[in-house]
Automatic annotation (TrEMBL):
PROSITE patterns: WYL. It comes from Orenia marismortui. Residues 146-213 form the WYL domain. This is Putative DNA-binding transcriptional regulator YafY. Residues 243-320 form the WCX domain. InterPro entries: CBASS_pafABC_assoc_protein, WCX_dom, WYL_dom. Pfam families: WCX (PF25583), WYL (PF13280). One of its GO terms (molecular function) is DNA binding. The keyword Repressor does not apply.
Length: 324
């Protein structure tokens, strides 16, 4: 992260800390959370005040606050920008089970209500005709309290005690984690956090967190942590120990379909005769790749690695036993 973006991020973080109704952060607290010195604190504070953010010191609470009646001014948006906002918001508004559903619904209603009548008239019939879908596979309306708690813990950089159900072991365990990132991927919301029990960074499905509690212990978000670097060349969610080169031959209509799409950042496609292609990519963890290949049936043949080819063979033999 560059110096300019790092400074901007820390100022945004500073605002998020002191704008809460029940927030009580002293200068020392803010410095510790942001990892900055006293002179940097006052420099950030001055920049925000010059931008019109009314920051004051509450002597009774011994904490910095933002004036209660302060709200951001309505931005001047073009029609295309408003449509982009509506379209991206609809990806959540189309599914009430997704996180941020209520917040997005309220904020979009406020923005729409503030628009000129003529713009609203143009926008209204288009709202239901331009949208994306996030396809949530879990009802997150039941996890909103845990989601809100994790969100606050990420902002305040507080460790969290969780009771987590492991699907693989079919039982729940207790652990303390330092929450880094909430990431929605492939229909599920994941918490990427440092697990103090295992002494390593791990991914936790939020819907499998059965109970949680913020502790008094703080942590510092590592400056060198990168979600992209952490996920590496994983196919989707599951990470492997090492990268593996995969080659798959596709034929017929499926080959034309595969050629049109981007499935992995390392993907390369070699076109062959008779409507055939070889798709090559480097990934870590083959279990998700195996499931993806199997859904294309006889139109897909694994060429490399041999271990994956053998796994596919075994799976097909098992299926033949089921469908005999």
């Amino acid at each position: 992260m560059g110096k300019i973006s790092d400074k901007a991020w820390k100022m945004i973080k500073m605002v998020s800390l002191i704008e809460g109704k029940h927030s009580q952060y002293s200068r020392q607290d803010i410095q510790r959370i942001l990892g900055i010195k006293k002179n940097s604190f006052y420099r950030y504070k001055n920049c925000l005040e010059e931008a019109g953010v009314p920051i004051y010191y509450n002597r009774k609470l011994k904490a910095y606050k933002i004036r209660k009646d302060y709200y951001l001014r309505q931005p001047h948006l073009s029609l295309s920008e408003i449509l982009a906002l509506v379209a991206s918001s609809n990806s959540i508004l189309n599914d009430s089970e997704l996180p941020y559903y209520e917040e997005i619904n309220t904020s979009l209603a406020k923005i729409t209500a503030s628009l000129p009548d003529k713009v609203q008239a143009v926008l209204e019939p288009l709202k239901s005709r331009i949208h994306f879908s996030l396809n949530s596979l879990v009802d997150y309306s039941e996890s909103r309290e845990i989601h809100a708690l994790l969100e606050d813990a990420i902002q305040e950089e507080s460790n969290v005690w969780i009771k987590y159900y492991s699907y693989k072991r079919d039982k729940a365990s207790e652990r303390v984690v330092s929450p880094y990132i909430l990431d929605f991927k492939k229909g599920f919301l994941y918490l990427i956090a440092y697990c103090h029990n295992k002494n390593e960074t791990r991914m936790f499905r939020v819907d499998r967190i059965k109970d949680s509690k913020v502790t008094e212990d703080k942590f510092k978000y590592p400056d060198d942590f990168s979600l992209k670097k952490y996920m590496g060349n994983s196919w989707s969610v599951m990470r492997g120990d090492k990268d593996v080169k995969v080659k798959v031959k596709f034929t017929g209509d499926i080959a034309r379909w595969i050629k049109e799409n981007k499935y992995h950042p390392t993907q390369e496609v070699e076109e062959l005769e008779y409507d055939s292609i070889i798709m090559s990519f480097t990934t870590s963890g083959l279990s998700e790749v195996k499931g993806w290949i199997l859904k294309y049936g006889s139109s897909a043949e694994v060429l490399e690695p041999e271990s994956l080819r053998e796994e596919i063979k075994d799976e097909i033999k098992g299926m033949m036993g089921v469908y005999k």
